[in-house]
């Protein structure tokens, strides 16, 4: 009963928070450059001057309240029984209540969804987004694409372009209608992810409620996947469904769903080698001879690779796209932020190097560090794959480690990339310190990005305040049970046992 009563606070507080975010998004989010809802309603003043100030206040108040509601929900789960049905129901109610106000919100924290529409329109109009930038196809959608990306090709797979083409064929150049369809798809992907996380956690002996709390109710996930409508939502949802199939020993179905996710974004491929380990463990035992185990491994790996290529090839053919995305996988080097280790280290060493040679500007160490990081990433991925092979739970931890290695050493890293890591982090039991670090860093990343998509990562005062807030909230979350709970536990421990039956 106590849990149900305390659930009222995070559910209602989070719903109020996302309602504020939704209202503020129309003036402080990734707002339209031309037209849009505000223009049609005659409320343009909300996007500039004092109106924009009000909108930013509402959005930031909503973000702060959402973080608070998330921590309250986590505290409610951790202070009772994380594996109880009540705890899982609490997090599910939170998700429904928190997502509902975001359904009609404008894009926040990124303008990428406008690029998605533009790339779909390019394929529709006969252009190749893998070799041509958005500027090749002038029109109303181009006006909404960030200036940084108007002459940039896309690294996303053929399914991404096929979805965009389908939306723009249905809605034409109506940007508002296109955004609504992308919002529906992002919520469907998020729903698949939220469905898969508790099932994975339950099958691997972890807490479904805790896994759902850190992996779906997390503000990073809600704001960037639902609010920002990034295609990670669909990709992570498909990978989650595939991993559920793998834990139920349906490896062909698992590889199929993950291969579909790969055709959306190549990041999903990091999970495939670990599915091979899971299948190998199912079809061999410790008593199996080494030659037979090697033969089984090669057979499973070859069949998995063949199925993956077949699925991606079929989607490429059906979408009338090309394989040009393989050359673009490395992403665009324009993005510079300290979430990527090469950029962080380059920023640290540049001033020191300039003391000795004025030609060693930021791009010089950055180029070297990005090359070195690619090597470190490759070695780290192989090490993670080899070390986490002993069981299904270990394979799941290996996937989390592989994602962590990839995003740490990648040349370009953005906050929504971590959706892949967060969704898988707690489905296998993890130590309490790992949960604490994941919580604290999630709060820091949530507070580091503004509604328009700009970040404060190079603002020392802002980041210091964010880190202190994250430390305080995480410390409160992870501290021992409250006095009432401890007293109840002590009372139960000292209560006399009933007399044994005669």
TrEMBL record:
Chief location: membrane
This protein's UniProt keywords: Glycosyltransferase, Membrane, Transferase, Transmembrane, Transmembrane helix
Annotated TM spans: 54-78, 90-109, 180-201, 210-231, 251-276, 297-319, 339-356, 368-388, 400-418, 430-449, 461-479
Pfam families tied to this protein: MptA_B_family
Compartments reported by the entry: Membrane
Domain of life: Bacteria
Residue ranges the record marks as coiled coil: none
Membrane topology: Multi-pass membrane protein
Stated family: Belongs to the MptA/B family.
The protein's name: Alpha-(1->6)-mannopyranosyltransferase A
The organism of origin for this protein: Corynebacterium mastitidis
Lineage: Bacteria, Bacillati, Actinomycetota, Actinomycetes, Mycobacteriales
